[in-house]
Design a protein that fits this description.
This protein has 103 residues and is mainly alpha-helical. It is 47% helix and 0% strand. It has helices at 8-22, 38-42, 55-69, 77-84, 90-94. Helix 3 (55-69) crosses helix 4 (77-84).
Length: 103
C-alpha cells in the first residue's frame, strides 16, 4: 500500500490540522497543561527526519520551544513547526515520508 502523502511537508500540513482539532480536547490539568499537550502531539514527529542532515538540531530546537511554551494555551503545533523547521533543507522536507535518500 502506498503512502497517501507525497512529501513530509504535506504530511506536516495534514498533521497540524489534526493537532489543531485535538489540542486541549480533554481540558487542562491542575498545573496548567492542556490535555493532550503540545509535547504529546509533537512526539509522533520525533523520528520523521531520522538520519537526515540537521535532524538532531531540529529535535533540539523543538525541545527548547516546547520547554519555553509548555503552558501557553495559545501555542499550536503549527507554531512550533514554523519556528523550528528552518534548520531542515527543502530537499529533506519535500522527500516522501520514510525516504532516507536525502542524507
Amino acid at each position: 500500500e502506498s503512502n497517501p502523502r507525497t512529501s513530509r511537508r504535506d504530511l506536516l500540513v495534514e498533521y497540524v490540522k489534526y493537532c489543531d482539532a485535538t489540542h486541549g480536547r480533554f481540558g487542562t490539568t491542575k498545573d496548567g497543561y492542556s490535555v493532550p499537550s503540545i509535547r504529546h502531539l509533537m512526539h509522533p514527529l520525533q523520528n520523521l527526519f531520522l538520519g537526515e542532515p540537521n535532524a538532531k538540531v531540529w529535535r533540539r530546537k523543538v525541545d527548547e520551544a516546547l520547554k519555553h511554551d509548555a503552558r501557553n494555551p495559545d501555542v499550536t503545533v503549527g507554531m512550533i513547526l514554523e519556528r523550528t523547521l528552518g534548520v531542515l533543507s527543502d530537499e529533506t522536507l519535500d522527500a516522501p515520508p520514510g525516504d532516507r535518500s536525502t542524507s
